[in-house]
Amino acid sequence: MTNLTIGLPVFNAMPFLEESLESLLRQTDGDFKILAIDDGSTDSSLKYLRSMRDSRLCVVTQPNRGLTFTLNRMLCEVDTPWLMRHDADDVASASRVAVTRRFIKQFPDAGMFYAEARYYQEGRSVGTFRTTRATPEKLRQITANGYLPAICHPTVTLNVEKTAALGGYRFNLHIEDLDLWWRMALRYDIRYMPEVTTYFRHNSASVSTANLEDQSINALYVQYLLLSHLHGWRPLPYDRVRAQLARSVDKPKLTFREQMRSANICYGQQDYSRACRHLARAAIASPAYFVRRVFYELRGSNIAFNGENPSMFLRQRDLLWPERADPATSTQPVATLSDKAKGAECA
Description:
This protein is of the alpha/beta class and 347 residues long. It contains 15 helices and ten strands.
């Protein structure tokens, strides 16, 4: 009996959707379902999905509600215990399902699995996604110390019941994954699969590229929520704390990330001179981060993770936690697991 569904959120995903879906349909282990939710696309994405004739593919349509709502709807609609994340512009390795199923059999009580990813551009692999390679115990320790695990969202396979018990995804801020990782790490085992299962497309028009500075601020907010939870302090709503967090963004690190992303895109396009210029700018912006990134590509032994030193937040505790004597409360999710849209249709 099929125990795994691949969740494919789709919004204006052409021309990459075809390659992405084909990579799923050509898996060496074909025992899975695909739940594709079209989030109000205005291009030909839905037409392409409806043209596919594969009994494993179920196509669901909805008005545009955003990624967080769509991911939570997947958790509601799925009828298998495991949900594998996949983005509509990424490419799965041929053995992704087989590798994941092997780990599910070995660790059936896990809350989540994740794997290695390679950046992908113009049909070429152009670097490794920075990932926390660690045991569940180490991931829990990293999180308990106030840092965030570095996990590539499209490599993840979720235990549906345990993810729902955590409240699913929260916040339509392009960091819904970071917020889930810390909650999952503190409560359930997260298992690392040391194999490349996903080729993560670097796209100059992607949401993450267009919102890099906002993502940096929002990631600080997620770390702030984690620290609030760990200390038992009441966090402020996002709108009240955003300006303060924006002043804490590491500008050299942000410039480094922007230049490295541009270098990868140029390299994938075989524009090597521009790629080298972006690499040089990245090294100038932050020599320390550049050296660490090179060392990571050489598979150094240090464990990578995300976030700033928690002491940075604690130095501002009178501003960030003015009511810190009260019990911690979580902010209200933008979309909850009870928010179910209409209009399912199966291919």
